[in-house]
Amino acid sequence: MRLTIATAFVFGLSVSQAFAGTVSVPMDEVRTVTFPRPVATVYMGNSTIADVNLIDSRHAFVLGKVFGTTNLIALDSSGHEVSNVYVAVPETRGSTVTVFHGVQQVTMSCGGPRCNVSPVPGDAGYKDRIGDVEAHHELGAKQAQ
Predict the structure, then answer these.
(1) Among residues 50, 73, 89, which one ends one of the domains?
(2) Model-level pTM greater than 0.85?
(3) Which CA distances in Å does 39 have to 12, 16, 30, 78, 82?
(4) Is the same domain home to 13 and 45?
(5) What is the mean pLDDT of each successive set of 10 residues along the chain, which is 145 residues long?
(6) CB 67 within 8 A of CB 90
């Protein structure tokens, strides 16, 4: 245990980051991420799944966009890695249903009386549907301005 905690501090991680390693952000919600030391650059591995906005040198907002997992990397001003954590975007308010039609599948998120298509890799037309999801989020961002 001491070796693990010491290793975490050597690499600039807090103990909670070293052991947790995952930020869970429900779809269409935001979480604040705190870095153990100042960062200059943040990058989300797959910006279709989640987005990141730097608040200041120690904090960032992570927005869950669609179901899935990716990672967030933060670098200091010298380009050294400060943090590399997994980001998971689950749907916690409803159920996920996968419909199979022959060899094709479509994944849907159901909450209340209706279900909406929630594409995941492997779904029929995944690439086309992801474009629709991105357009939806861009429209929402434009309306918020």
Answers:
(1) 89
(2) no
(3) 11, 18, 20, 9, 7
(4) yes
(5) 40 40 86 95 93 95 89 96 92 74 83 74 73 58 52
(6) yes
